[in-house]
Prior knowledge:
Order of helices and strands: HHHHHHEEHEHEHHEHHEHHHHHHH
CATH class of the largest domain: Mainly Alpha
Low-confidence stretches: none
Radius of gyration: 31 Å
Bound molecules: arginine
Number of domains: 3
Number of helices: 19
Helix content: 55-70%
Structural class: mainly alpha
Strand order of the largest sheet: 1-2
Amino acid sequence: MSTQPWGGRFGEEPDPLVDRFLRSLQVDYRLFREDIQGSRAYARALVAAGVLTRDEGIAIDRGLQSIGDELEAGQALPEGSEDIHMAIEARLIERIGPVGGKLHTGRSRNDQVAVDLRLYVRRAALELGGGLTELEQALRTRAAEHLDVVMPGYTHTQRAQPVLLAHHLLAYVEMLRRDRGRLADAARRADESPLGAGALAGSGVAIDRDSLARDLGFSRPTANSLDAVSDRDFALELLAALSILMIHLSRLNGEIVLWTTAEFGFAELPDALASGSSMMPNKKNPCAAELVRAKTGRVTGDLVALLMVMKGLPLAYNRDLQEDKEAVFDGVDTTLAALVVTTRLVKGIRLNPARMRAAALDGYTLATEAADYLTRRGMPFREAHRLVGRAVAFAIKEGRPLEGLTIQEWQTFSPLFQADLFESLTLEAALNARAVVGGTAPARVKEALARG
Ligand code: ARG
């Protein structure tokens, strides 16, 4: 007979190589808090169901609590176990004797690991939400500090129309707000307790799953035992939310890389947030921003890895599911680190308003204003566009800005141009003209900031 906890029907010990391959303790060790929390609640449910005496319940609870304290203090678990669940159970029996073996009555590792992971996902979503708040706050603070700074807005990475720097920064705040919503959705989907589903068919012990769920802080028990032990869509949803969040961080950090080039010169990183070259003494590189950008690939990889684990799995539990944890932990760790680093960069980056304003004035970004001027005097926009395009070509040839053309020159393109044209051809006029909801007019941007 095998010495494994499940070894009764086995005539041999496991092959050491295969045994090593099956082990997950190195990875799922991180679920020890959730595992102990789940087991303590389960022991209470067993007492309530009359399976454990009060004294047995107390012994198990104390045992679990002190194992939790040991692990919290960094003490290692005995090596021999397959996973965190078996390791804690083995330690419990070692501590309190055979009565520890009663804890698993009516329970399976299948519902046990499912409840652990749901507890972890809910906790992680909260922590990630905190990281998001910090970044949003940092962006808002920078926006408020620079409410009067104008920069060129871009399409196709070509200067397009002037916008407020604050408007640009608040665009990221909007993305992060939606990320927060997606995180909250993932947490909501994880908010059901699988404990009591047993191995697959439902526990044979008449535990009160409603109170057990509430005891663990879940809103309700899962409705179907097969689904409870075998789906991980709540984890997929978390990873999907994190992937999208990381895509947003990659865009923001990509702009930090762009803005700190000599070519843009919109910003400079303080030395403490930049990095050097081993060969070129002149270099100051935005490595942290680049790495956040790159780690987006990792998190998306985690999502795809778990999607592929789930694909085509027949009901109910399959050992494939053990592979879920690495992806989830890596996705959460990477995203948390990316949030913290991005927040540092946003707080510390030195912006160059003069350079932004000069760039906004330099790229014929007021051309739309001239066309809009003509439409206010009745000209169809398509005609105005063509005509101002010709004026832009003329100004480029002359090497002068649009607002540097004389009114006589403008009138060679259309007699509708009058001296008041020049009131429209300023950065401030262009901004103020964009006062629609969601536009870059200073009044709108102030409202957006105030909305909080
Ligand atoms: N370690 C496994 C996992 O993470 C749980 C164990 C389930 N094993 C089993 N033979 N039913 O999914």
